[in-house]
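User: Batch of two.

Assistant: Item 1 of 2:
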Amino acid sequence: MENKLNLSNKQSTTIIWTLLMVMPLLGMTIDLIAPSLPAISSQLNISDSLAKETFTTFLFGFAFGNFFAGFISDAYGRRNILRIGLFLFSVISIVPVLFPEINVLLASRFIQGITMGMSAIVVRAAFSDIVPKDKLVHLGAVIGMMWGLGPVIGPLIGSYLQENFGWQSCFYFFSIVSLLNFISVFFIVPETHFNRQPLKFKTIQRNMLEVLKSRTFIALPIMMGMSYSLILSFHTMAPFFIQEMLHHSPVFFGKIALLLGVGYVITTIVVKKLLRHFLASQILSISIIFFLAAAIIGLILSYFYPNSVTLLVIISLMMFIASGFIFLLSLGSGLAMFGHIIGTATAIMYLINGGLNATISFIVSLTHINNLTTIIWVYVLLMSAITIVYFYLYKPQKST
């Protein structure tokens, strides 16, 4: 296969699969520890809200890591940044185990977020370096599938680790998997970026201003952030509802999360097929209205069945599917804009998306879970906000 680095077909395939094996780790760095949140709260003698902030600090770090690593890797190359990111993630993952104290845990999660953000943006860029554009579209489905494995299997793996070995085992797992990825990347993945772009702050500033002036574009990462926060809210609140209030095991929660994750992955496939026949704006309009209605109906039912696991699963599954529709369609629409400065546009997109994820996660972490109604109220508020952004900020500006 012909490629940008003049690699043989075997070399190219080996490098691509080495990078693909990093993707599941990128996808499970949040979800894996979700079943352990109640145990972290109990064993570290902290509030539930403080335990939930392990999500918030990670997400803030991830947003900043994504943003800055894109510019740096364009200027200095991919390989060393990816090596540093994976190695530091492996090392920092051990720190909370050695020093089991909440401030250490939160600081470690923030650094984990930065290193994973660095790794994520560099891996995506490396695929673009290696694979010709005509083949990159087809590889995109495989990349999405490999990343999607993380949120799908992460909670289940985490639940069994928690059940049998305690919350510290999740961080051992992170360290070992990241170290294995680091070793394979170190020996297999070469430098893939040679068309270096020096860091010119005036150019970066000009490009950023061009992107930020577009209300249409800014609406997209806002919708991405709020839609993915539907999933994050489940992983933040549901472990306490299921494990502490209803007294089910971490594995029980892990199996529910697995079901919801499978629903999300299936949604990504459905979205791609629908785009062959309908405009993204048409699908977005219908899906946003439908899933807002579903959330409102779920809220009403929750007042009659405040402790129903079945209702939790049904409504949460609807919200995972909603996230799949809204996130992917918003992402695709955003990537279609600003093709001449796609690196800057992508950096801003993921900064807004990640920053919003972190902010919403922090707000949700302060929410006291009284019953199922509390969780579904969060779903309704997020879907309502998405509806307002789409119809009053995005749609009037552009039809896609």
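Item 2 of 2:
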Amino acid sequence: MINFNVPPFTGKELDYIKDAIDRQKICGDGSYTVKCNEWIEERTGTAKCLLTTSCTHATELAALLADIKPGDEVIMPSYTFVSTADAFVLRGAKVVFVDIRPDTMNIDEKLIEEAITERTRAIVPVHYAGVGCEMDTIMELAVKYNLLVIEDAAQGMMASYKGKPLGAIGDFGCFSFHETKNYSMGEGGAILIKDEKYIDDAEIIREKGTDRSKYYRGQVDKYRWQNYGSSYLPSDMNAAYLWAQLEKADVINELRLTRWQQYDELLQPLKERGLIELPYIPKHCVHNAHMYYIKTKDLEERTRLFSFLKDESGILPASHYVPLHSAPAGLKFCRFHGEDKYTTKESERLLRLPMFYTLKESEVDYIVSKVKEFYHV
């Protein structure tokens, strides 16, 4: 059986977790958390990175820093994970969906302006599969209408748009280190903060509303309750697990890209015959091989291919998001602006193939051979 995902493991994780235990500092903001924060800051150029317990919590923290309130509106695609919307619904905001582009599966930047109202406070682009949204247009709209940009870069670590790292372009960026991501700490995430003016508030909210971070730096003699907040700190043991992968981030990235390219080259004959569609990467985007997907003719064909790979070939593929605007909570808390021309249609056609950094060349050969067998090629 070829699994859809195998959580990343480099071999140093257990050593670093033991070291964290030996240091007798396994709660949040230990030495490994500091290492990870500093590594991400150096790689992305963001003013501040703070590890969180999940990308969900990173997005919630961004919503708090953005001071999202009841009655505010936030624009995003419906084709995303529930956490992207949840963070703002929890603040009482109305989520406004716009359609996606069929080529990248990202938000259609040309439709955003029409959805802006006097209540709009933020735009939330989602970088699907680690391929950047058209951030120039989005940032121009943000300036024009005085909006914040909160990047859902859950899948975007080590990817870039016109040379700028995803997650570090907007006001806030949110990474995921879930077990399905390129780099993992089991459950975990990070918030990237572009403007230093938000750092103090971010530290306070993340530390249960206290100035404990300043206390540990010796800036105050005791920490006090300063504002509302919650506990967004991951254990330093989780950070130790992540650190083992960040040390090998470039190696992991190159191995994933090699397997991604192998898929892409071997599946070209099916694309050329018009049987399937393959991922599109704009020339100004550098992706991170977070996933490899194909698009079938329709939902019925995808269902048959899924069953063929899983039940007859020992391969575990995966579909992806059910558009949020069609879900019960989406109908309750959100609205879709304009026509759903591509969101539902394209989501029903998309099938993700196994992708992880230890995936073998021979396994990709086998997977592609089975896809070709299904299409009689």
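DSSP finds 15 helices and 13 strands in the chain.
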